[in-house]
Design brief:
Elements lengths: L1 H5 L2 E6 L6 E5 L10 E6 L4 E8 L1
Antiparallel strand pairs: 1-2, 1-4, 3-4
Length: about 55
């Protein structure tokens, strides 16, 4: 129970508009805001920003 409350599973969606997503976990205490990471989008073929969706 405590595992899902502190480190929830989040989906990171590509800002390139391809619909590609990554799934990861984040620490809610250290990152209460929405997460944004620069990762590889294989549909576009380059690195783009991925933002947390809720």
């Amino acid at each position: 129970m405590a595992r899902t409350e502190l480190r929830p599973v989040i989906r990171l969606r590509s800002t390139a508009g391809t619909g590609f997503t990554y799934v990861t976990r984040k620490n809610r205490r250290s990152d209460p805001d929405r997460m944004s990471l620069r990762k590889y989008d294989p549909v576009v073929g380059r690195h783009v920003d991925f933002r947390e969706e809720r």
